[in-house]
Amino acid sequence: MICSREEAGWDVVYFAGGGGVSWTDLTGDVGPVTRLVMEAPGGASAGVVDFMGVCRHVEVQSGYLVFVAWDQADPDAVPDVVGWV
Hints:
The chain is mostly beta strands.
């Protein structure tokens, strides 16, 4: 789910369920979005995500890793989990 902040509160801009990698070309101020959602292995507190040559530690929440790259115009740029912490 992708939301935008409006004057009256939050508004759902896009909704898609499930895990894996997706790229969505949204209109307006949000722009294209790449996302990665996956279940983390037991005991992992973070995943190491490589995206376009830059590694980031992404905290695991409720057993899942969720990585989002905003304004990502290249649908072929795919995030990859290269390790767990």
